[in-house]
């Protein structure tokens, strides 16, 4: 609960909920990687975009899946995460000929 209180304090002072690192990773992605379902729910309620992708193409759903965070992945899917998102943004070997 203390972490959510801290997030609320920071966001209420005007921090951007989808502010990303140089790698394009957002707080929602990091919460998903940690399996912090309640934190993810809070960020989504605050307006975090569940379909936003980092520079490597990973979305919050990829981070939750990587962490084995099933409850978090289910939350993200209910919030609109795409089941059809690709893992990599580069062409597949089949597409290269």
Strand residue percentage? under 5%
> How far do the termini sit from each other?
52 Å
Report Rg: 14 Å
Number of strand segments: 0
Mean pLDDT: 87
- The number of helical elements comes to 5
Low-confidence stretches: none
Q: Helix/strand/pairing class, anyone?
A: mainly alpha
In helices, the fraction of residues equals 40-55%
Question: Main β-sheet, in a few words?
Answer: none
Order of helices and strands: HHHHH
Q: Choose one word for the global shape.
A: globular
What would you say about this model in short?
The protein is mostly helical and 97 residues long. Helices cover 45% and strands 0% of the residues.
Protein architecture, described:
By secondary structure, this protein is mainly alpha-helical. 45% of the residues lie in helices and 0% in strands. The protein is built from five helices and no strands. It has helices at residues 2-12, 27-33, 37-45, 60-67, 70-78. The protein is globular and about 35 Å long. The mean pLDDT is 87.
